[in-house]
């Protein structure tokens, strides 16, 4: 689909032009279980990251990074139609992508040890960051006194870049390789190899706030910050390779507020053993504050952490779900069905196709009424 006959255009014209906002994904009479819509022209290899455009721009764009070294951009129309817009390449597999707050730029973190800035209006890219090992994450930060991109790497550093100069404005040493990172100003949290957990404060000059003993006994895989009722970052959900998620508050008077729950495990037993799968991604719903988890079992689940209950679990897919994302108004849940490398490269079945699906999720993620 790509290359000379690519469905992806060479122009990203139309950015900033408003579109009529109708019923999401064309499901005006939403059935009890709406059918997910497949994104056209999916990546040629495993999908590592998905990010929707910020609310600053009127249209909905979806960015996906892949192990085929490419980052793709689609426009998602409210009818459910997806339109390939453009594609950019790096010199190694993509591990993360993020948007600038105004929706004009996309930042791309790669195994080639660099981060590039993709200016969508000009459709040009420029390197803005360099590490000594693959870059696991990139996050755009807009603080009152600075604007930067924060990158985390397997070289055991966090670096902050203002994108206009070749050197970082700040480098923080991390005790181990960065495995999962989330940012919600003024808070950042990093999960590292050897089950390290470090919280950073980003006001004025970013600095380490505190270290936490991991509530999980197995390798950290994904992390997501959640907010309190006053809309301030207050804690995070941490997923591990052992089918378990921890809900952890940064400061709580009652330690019982922190808890863990099992997920992405087989219902029955296999010769007396339960199959346990990695949790590949966690995302919080931007309106309801409930959360989604996706796993190597090929299922997604929706949860209400405050009521400590499961809201929904999907049917299983024939491959893992590698990553997920909500759009800014919480109407659309995107998830990628592709190999997650959890069993090593020898279990990579190239005959299975990669796919990205869009699901109208607003009702499914409504919190349970407390009785």
Compute the average pLDDT: 90
Structural class category:
mainly beta
Strand order of the largest sheet: 1-28-27-26
Question: Beta-sheet strand percentage?
Answer: over 45%
Query: Helical element count?
Result: 0
Distance between the ends: 52 Å
Largest sheet: 4 strands, antiparallel
Choose one word for the global shape. globular
Strand/helix succession: EEEEEEEEEEEEEEEEEEEEEEEEEEEE
Structural account:
The chain has 371 residues and is mainly β. It is 0% helix and 45% strand. The chain has a 4-stranded antiparallel sheet, with no helix packed on it. Strands 2-3-4-5 form a 4-stranded antiparallel sheet, with no helix packed on it. It is globular, with a radius of gyration of 20 Å. The termini are far apart.
Quick summary:
The protein is an all-beta fold.
Which terms would index this structure?
disordered N terminus; mainly beta; single chain; 4-stranded antiparallel sheet; 371 residues; 45% strand
Which helices and strands appear, and what pairs or packs with what?
Elements (H helix, E strand, L loop, with lengths): L36 E2 L8 E6 L7 E7 L3 E7 L5 E8 L4 E6 L5 E6 L3 E6 L4 E7 L4 E8 L4 E7 L3 E5 L8 E4 L4 E7 L2 E6 L4 E5 L5 E5 L8 E8 L5 E8 L3 E6 L9 E4 L16 E6 L6 E5 L4 E5 L4 E5 L7 E6 L5 E6 L17 E6 L11
Antiparallel strand pairs: 1-28, 2-3, 3-4, 4-5, 6-7, 7-8, 8-9, 10-11, 11-12, 12-13, 14-15, 15-16, 16-17, 18-19, 19-20, 20-21, 22-23, 23-24, 24-25, 26-27, 27-28
